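Notes from the pairing session

We agreed to fold both candidates in a single pass and log them together. This is the raw record for the first candidate, unedited. Please don't reformat it; downstream parsing expects exactly this layout.

Candidate A
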Amino acid sequence: MWEAEFTLAERTTLLEEGLFLRPSDYADEPYPITLRLIEDGRLNLVMNGPLHLHMPVRLLQGSADVDVPPTVAISLFHQISSPDLRLTLVKDADHRFSTPPCLAMITEAIEDVLRAREALPVEETPGLKVSNIR
């Protein structure tokens, strides 16, 4: 995100002020990006190796998402190891994924994960506690 998404001027603002107000396509107010967010993101990268998740996983992705392209979801799908993994690509859905049908899909995915997790054996995943998934 650092070099691909921000200009030199924006990176300089972040480094000097700790905050950059990025214009938003979704609201009149700009979106605050903090240096702390960038630094925390660097410490929590998940796209740089296998991601072993011992729980059901549902990925919902819009085909018209210009902020997080479908290729990112597909790459993540291939990096995840899960006993129950599904990727749903929704034609013409954008980054907000907030139309009534998309919101219904989110609700359905949550309910599906809650049902599916009961059928899986509980295993420890580094960084996750059993209490976080049950």
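Candidate B (folded immediately after A)
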Amino acid sequence: MPKACPNCNTPMVLENAHGVLLNVCPACAGIWLTSDELHTLITCEPHDIEVLEGSLQGHIDQQHVGASKLLCPTDQTLLDEYHYLYNSPVLIHTCSKCGGLYIHGEDLPLMRQWFMKSHEPLTRKEEERVEMATDISEHEGHMIRQQHLRGMFNTLQRYSPGWFGFFP
């Protein structure tokens, strides 16, 4: 029985991509991958991925259908959304039970762009932001340690009246 697309509920078809059978939606070009399939595709050559991207051209309907929750085509649980590479606009939908992954077909080229961008050297402005974030993180760490020490000393004073330092 074919799996239903989490995005549009169209029955997905199996397509062979470099020895990996993928569930592909013929309507929206979405792809359902198991964790093993994803690992196999990650190890492919970049040219092979470009060929795969070119073969997955679905019809993208621009009508707004409202907010929807995508369901796993394997076990019908709600999928979790994550941003690809943490800060990209590309959303990846994953199943916490079976480890499956759903990617909208039109997002494949965007994923490649974000991946390539993530491997470019940082600009001077980005380096300054990283340096500032590091400084802020270190400062917050120092403040948290001070709060913990203050809490420990307050606890000691509360339970040992008259205690100050090492001598009573």
